[in-house]
Amino acid sequence: MRMSVLLRLLALIFVLITSWVIVRSYISFSWKTVRLPRWLAGSVSKKTRVVRNKCDLSKPCPNNFFAFKILSGAANVVGPSVCFEGHMIMSPVKNNVGRGLNIALVNGSTGTVLRQSFFDMYSGDPMLLVKFLKEVTEDMLVLVASYDDPGTKMNDELRELFSNLGSSYAKQLGFRDSWVFLGAKDIKSNSPFEQVSPVTPTVDFAIYTFLS
């Protein structure tokens, strides 16, 4: 009886060892040899690359062009934003916008942001804006976005200064108009980068280096 049990145990061990040798000899478990079906591999490894243009423009700008986007405020609820070459210069998130006119000055050759400020055109001192605009030089781009009211304190001197920057709407700008504008000092014609509307306007263009 004991002998038969021992023989069965030896036979079982022999079968297990033989099976292990066969599996090891004919089947490789190396992960380097594992291949997924094409349809499965594609769904796992394929990645979609999202290309984001500067200032979230709908298409990229060519070489030697600056990308910019100017968005006016919506009534007195949502503040304006000014973006240039992918850099958000002014926005509610940056907490550097205010009621009236929000203005950024940019070097027209290098794209360097030089200065930004906002001017209260409802109850503020318009002479502060007059002084600011008189300091604009010929190598600067002037980016303007209105918020709430740009027109109440817009006097004749200011209208003339903006007209000299290329604005065709400054002389008619009124109470609570929404206005966006990009200009430069003493350009030869009216700036093509300007919109005024009772609703929120936006200007998003590529501009050739210093309005060439």
Automatic annotation (TrEMBL):
A single cellular component GO annotation: extracellular region
Domain called ILEI/PANDER: residue spans: 99-186
Name of the featured protein: Protein FAM3D isoform X4
Family: Belongs to the FAM3 family.
Signal peptide: none
Keyword terms: Disulfide bond, Lectin, Secreted, Signal
Listed InterPro entries: FAM3, ILEI/PANDER_dom
Native source species: Phyllostomus discolor (pale spear-nosed bat)
Main location: secreted
Lineage: Eukaryota, Metazoa, Chordata, Craniata, Vertebrata
Localization in the cell: Secreted
